[in-house]
Amino acid sequence: MSKWGNKDTAEIPSGEISTLLGKDADVKGSIRTQGSMRIDGTVEGELASSKTVTVGSSGVVNGNITAENIIVSGKVTGTLTARGRIILESTARLEGDINTSRLAIAEGASFKGRSNTGEAAKSGSFGDNRESRIKTPPATQESTAGA
């Protein structure tokens, strides 16, 4: 894990993890919790937390994630919405949109989608001039941050 990624992750007070989905777990359906959750297995469905959602390096989520903060080290296909911060660690693979107040993308992370950050994120709209887009070369259609 990068020194940059560790610093940003340490700034998010996740508290005690109340929900943990192990590497060998496979869940279809929504998971909602008031506490923090960590996903190391596979989820097909929505995730919602009033605290932090962490998708570990072995975690795979096919669905939207809504939380105070979101940390991704694994693979997510879906929209991420965080009131606080979203961190894409160096091993993260995200295909979907981001809506957050603050965004950190580590070198090596892959992100394909649209980002809506800062004050623009409060509106939840991607259709205005405040939109931010990471453009990718047509041959790969995938972006690697910092490359």
Describe the structure.
With 147 residues, this protein is mostly beta strands. The chain has one domain (3-133). It has helices at 3-10, 119-123; strands spanning 17-21, 26-28, 31-33, 36-39, 42-44, 47-49, 52-55, 60-62, 65-67, 69-72, 75-77, 80-88, 93-95, 98-105, 110-112, 114-117, 132-133. The strands form two sheets. Strands 1, 3, 4, 6, 7, 9, 10, 12, 14, 16 and 17 form an eleven-stranded mixed β-sheet that branches. Strands 2-5-8-11-13-15 form a six-stranded parallel β-sheet, with no helix packed on it. The longest helix has 8 residues, at 3-10. The radius of gyration is 14 Å and the shape is globular.
Helix-strand makeup class: mainly beta
* Helicity range: under 10%
Give the C-alpha Rg: 14 Å
Indicate the overall shape.
globular
Summarize model confidence as the mean pLDDT: 81
How many strands in all? 17
Strand count, sense and barrel status of the largest sheet are: 11 strands, mixed
What string, H for helix and E for strand, traces the elements in order?
A: HEEEEEEEEEEEEEEEEHE
- In percent, how much strand structure appears in the residues? over 45%
Number of helices: 2
In terms of per-residue confidence, which ranges show pLDDT below 50 for 5 or more consecutive residues? 1-10, 125-144
Number of domains: 1
Terminal CA distance: 17 Å
